[in-house]
Write a structure and sequence with these properties.
5-stranded mixed sheet; alpha/beta; single chain; about 325 residues
Length: about 325
């Protein structure tokens, strides 16, 4: 059996870059492909913060439906946007080799504001909370839209800077010279990784796509997403997680944290374990976080979001 594998993607420049990367890899293996771009609700609704939309998988739902309806065969996503619980019938077919996990601060040429009062833009509660934890005298404002839109908004406003994932800017050659690596900021679970989803009963497509899988990235992102899922934070709680494989020692180094929305409370963890203990590392790390003040932080977050009618999403 042979068929053209229809690749579903969002229609932003970054999403299309990701889809074309997967397409080239499949073409190199001899498979025929077609890219089908659709616009997601996350791209259409730009006047509300993500956590106010109350939709699970705001950037993935449209493509989930397209796959289930048979309009596309696979969907390519930034893995950090994908809910930890996939819709029934949809499976993770491959995780591509990870790019940089770093967050960066894009500024306008002068960083003197860091030790003064300043305004920083980000649409991420994780980035907001970690920023305010380090710079409590700063103001953080919401920033929505695709990468290009957010860069333009930074230029159009009097903000001192905005936080981006370095990988996204690098992939479409949009990373400016005026930036600072935020190596102190723990990234979002699965940041820098691309994932390909497929229908679980589509053996032809799963076999094709599985050849693109990077096992090291798959294991590390599994740990991070297990940590996220156990904490029950999803996109609406400030949760950072990063797992790295140390080839020399054959160990996994894991760092994770959970913060209150205002950044004033933080509980964090760092573990180094033998590679054979990876399968439950995210779960056990999350349990330690919960038992070390995390339960109280999560309860407070849920109460705050409930008062504002901003339901927690996975």
């Amino acid at each position: 059996m042979t068929k053209t594998i229809r690749i579903g993607t969002r229609d932003s420049e970054l999403a299309l870059w990701q889809a074309k990367t997967v397409e080239k890899s499949l073409n190199d293996l001899g498979y025929k492909t077609e890219i089908i771009a659709v616009k997601s609700q996350g791209d259409i609704i730009l006047d509300k913060p993500l956590y106010e939309l109350g939709i699970t998988g705001i950037f993935t739902k449209t493509l989930d439906i397209a796959m289930i309806n048979g309009q596309v065969d696979i969907a390519v996503h930034s893995m950090k946007d994908v809910p930890t619980a996939l819709p029934q019938g949809i499976v993770q077919a491959a995780v591509l080799e990870r790019a940089t996990v770093l967050d960066i601060l894009v500024h306008k040429g002068n960083t003197g504001f860091l030790e003064k009062e300043a305004t920083i833009a980000t649409g991420s509660l994780r980035r907001q909370a970690q920023w305010l934890n380090k710079y409590p005298n700063h103001t953080v404002v919401d920033l929505r839209g695709n990468v290009n839109t957010r860069m333009q908004k930074l230029n159009d406003n009097k903000w001192n800077g905005a936080v981006f994932a370095a990988a996204g800017l690098e992939r479409i050659n949009l990373k400016p010279e005026t930036f600072i690596n935020l190596d102190w900021m723990i990234p979002a679970p699965a940041q820098g990784a691309m994932v390909v989803l497929a229908m679980g009963n589509d053996n032809y497509t799963i076999h094709a796509v599985s050849q693109l899988n990077d096992i090291e990235t798959e294991i590390c992102t599994f740990i991070e997403r297990q940590f996220l899922s156990t904490l029950e934070g999803g996109c609406t709680a400030p949760i950072g997680a990063l797992a790295k494989y140390d080839q020399e020692d054959d160990t996994i180094i894991f760092e994770g944290n959970l913060l209150s929305l205002d950044g004033k409370q933080k509980t964090e963890i760092k573990k180094i374990v033998p590679i054979e203990n990876w399968k439950k590392l995210g779960y056990h790390s999350a349990q330690e976080i919960l038992n070390n003040g995390g339960k109280e932080i999560m309860t407070e977050i849920k109460q705050q979001l409930k008062k504002k009618n901003k339901p927690l999403r996975d």
